[in-house]
Amino acid sequence: MAEPRDTVVLAYSGGLDTSCILVWLKEQGYTVIAFLANIGQTEDFDAAQKKALALGAKKLSSIAALLPSPQVYIQDVCREFVEDFIWPAVHANALYEDRYMLGSALARPCIARHLVLIAQEEGARYIAHGATGKGNDQVRFELGCYALCPSIKVIAPWRMPEFYQRFPGRRELMEYAQKHGIPVPVTPKAPWSMDENLMHISYEAGILENPKNRAPLDLYTKTCNPTTSPDVPDELEIEFEKGVPVKVTNTRNGVTHRSALELFVYLNDIASKHGVGRVDIVENRFVGMKSRGIYETPAGTILYHAHLDIEAFTMDREVRKIKQGLSLKFSELVYNGFWYSPECEFLKHCIARSQQAVAGTVHVSVFKGQVYILGRESPHSLYNEELVSMDVQGDYEPADATGFININALRLKEYHRLQSKVSTKQDE
Predict the structure, then answer these.
(1) Of these four, 127, 134, 228, 425, which has the most CB atoms within 10 Å of its CB?
(2) Which residues share a beta bridge with 193?
C-alpha cells in the first residue's frame, strides 16, 4: 500500500473497470469517495451498495441526507437530467452527424456537475473516472469538471502507463477483480460494452468493432423487435409550450402525464413497446477516429419527430434556417464535451429564444419501429389555410408569381448564358 494521499471522487458505475479502479486508487494511497449517479440506468442499487461495502466502503448516503465522511454517494439525478439537459437537446432537435441523439454526451455534463459538487463538499482535490483513452467520455468528463472547478485535478487511470500496462486486457482486470473479491457480472454472452441512462443505451466494442458484423438480435435491451411488436399502434397527443413537452395523452386509453420526468418515462415505455429508436452507425469521435455505435433512444425519437413538426408549423422560415445552423453547432459542441463552454451557453440561449412561439399539440402514431405524424394544431400557427388553398384565391394574386419567377430566373439565365460562351471558346 502506498503512502496516504489526498481524497479523490470517483465516477463509479459498479462495473468491472470502475470497481477495479476504486481498489487500485486505494492501493495508491488515495481516500476514495465513489459517486454513483442514478441517471435512469437499469441498476440494482442495493447490489451496488453491497459491492461498495465489499470493496471497503464504510457508509453510503445521498446528497439529501449527508452522513459524516461518506465513502459512496448514490444520487437520483433523473429529473435534473431531463429538465436541464434533455430538454435543451429537444429545443435544438439535436443530432450529431444527422443520426446520433447524444444520449451519452448529454449525461456526462450532468454527472460532472455532481462530481464537482461532491468534491467541493468533501474538500477533495481530485476527480477520477474510468473512461478509456480512446473515447469521447474522457473529454466530456474532464472539460465539464475543469469548467466548473478550474482548480480540480483529474486522475484518468486508462491514460496512465502504470495502470494500462498492468491491465492490458479484460483478462487481467478479471484476475484482479477475483483476487480482491470484486463481484463483476461480465460473461462471454455479452461481448460488447454498454452504457445506459434514461435517454438511451449504447453498445460498442467487442464483436461490434467490425462494422460489417450484424448486431445480434439479443443485443437490444431497451426496445422490442419492431417485427414482433404490437399490431395495434399507440396514438399520442403531445403538447408543447415554448418548445418543451408539457403534456402527453394516449388517445386510446386516456392516460395522461404532465411532469417532465413522468412524461419522458412514459414515452420511453410506449416507444420501447413498439421498437422505436434503434440506430446502428459509424461516427467520428472527437479524438479523431471513426467508431461504430449502436443506440436505442426511444422517447427521444418520438420527441424529435414531434418537436420538429410543431416547430416547422410555428416558426418563420428564415428564423428556422438560422436556428438549424445553430442546432448543428450545438450538437457538435455537446458531442465534443463543451456543454459548459461560453459558446454553448450562447447557443442554448439563442435556441431557447427561438422557441418562444413553439407551442401546440402534435398527434402521432407509434407503430412497428416508426413514428408517424398524424396532425398538429397551434395557437401560434403560421399556416394560413385560406392563403394556401387551391380552391380559394384569398389575399394572393396568382399573376404576381410571373414577376417573382422572372426575377429568380434572371440569375440562372445569365449563368448559363456565360457558361455557353465559355464552352464555345473552349471548343474553338
Answers:
(1) 127
(2) 204
- Candidates 17, 195, 234, 309; catalytic one: 17
Helical H runs in 123-164? 137-148, 161-164
Write a three-state SS string for 233-293: CEEEEEEEECCEEEEEEECCCCCEECCHHHHHHHHHHHHHHCCCCEEEEEEECCCCCEEEE
- pLDDT tens for residues 163-181? 999 999 878 988 898 888 8
Gap between the Cα atoms of 81 and 424, Å rounded: 63
What span, in angstroms and rounded, lies between the C-alpha atoms of 214 and 294?
11
Q: Which of 61, 193, 341, 381 is catalytic?
A: 193
- Phi, psi for residue 228 in degrees, rounded to 5: -115, 10
Say whether 42 sits in a helix, a strand or coil.
coil
Q: What is the dihedral of CA 94, 97, 102, 105, to 10 degrees?
A: -120
**Catalytic annotation present for 6:** no
CA neighbor of 8 nearest in space, from 119, 148, 164, 104: 119
CB 271 within 8 Å of CB 238: no
- Other CB atoms closer than 10 Å to residue 179's CB: what's the count? 9
Question: In which residue are the cell numbers 483476487 written?
Answer: 179
Distance CA 316, CA 313 (A): 9
Q: Which of 152, 102, 150 is nearest to 337 (CA)?
A: 102
Q: Is residue 51 over pLDDT 80?
A: no
Does 17 participate in catalysis according to the annotation?
yes
pTM of the predicted model as reported, rounded to 2 decimal places = 0.91
Residue 185 has pLDDT above 50, yes or no: yes
Contact 45, 75 (CB under 8 A): no
195 is catalytic: no
Of 13, 19, 113, 137, the active-site residue reads 137
Type of residue numbered 279: V
C-alpha 277/C-alpha 93 separation (Å) is 15
Q: H/E element holding 362?
A: strand 360-367
> Exactly one of 13, 108, 140, 278 is catalytic; which is it?
108
Cα 303 from Cα 90, distance rounded (Å): 7
pLDDT band with cut points at 50, 70 and 90 for residue 142: very high
- Whether 400 is a known active-site residue: answer no
